[in-house]
Amino acid sequence: MDTSDTRKLRETLDLLGIRAQATAAGMVQMMLELHRAGVLDDAAVDRVKGAICGDLMLSCPQAIDRREYEASLRRRLDALFAGQEPVGRRMPAFGEKPE
Which domain of life is it from (predicted)? Predict the structure, then answer.
């Protein structure tokens, strides 16, 4: 998704109130279940992670290197969607080592 499409999607979700953590947790769990069941292939999961990362990059702090921030987000998303990070557990802050 390009930046303008990502912004439009974010605005639509904001208007609907779908930015809640509970919704995100449910979506991640649904993606894990669909992937495990073979309904979604790896490419589809990568597209979903890319959409999430694209939206999060809109909020990248100016004081942080964008490439490092994106790499950190992608590592954390990879771990989350691989089932290595439990849904609902606090993700480490940028630069913080996982517990």
Answer: Bacteria
Residue-wise pLDDT for 18-37, tens only, equals 656 667 777 888 988 999 99
Q: How far is CA 61 from CA 55, 67, 69, 95, in A?
A: 13, 12, 9, 13
The answer to the question of residue 40 being in a domain is yes
Kindly give the residue spans of alpha helices, DSSP state H, lying in the chain. Answer: 3-16, 21-36, 42-57, 66-81
The answer to whether the beta carbons of residues 6 and 54 sit under 8 Å apart is yes
Query: Quick check: is 97 in a domain?
Result: no
Count the neighbouring beta carbons within 10 Å of the beta carbon of residue 31: 19
| Token duo for residue 75 | 């590592």
The total of structural domains in the chain comes to 1
Domain around 33:
3-81
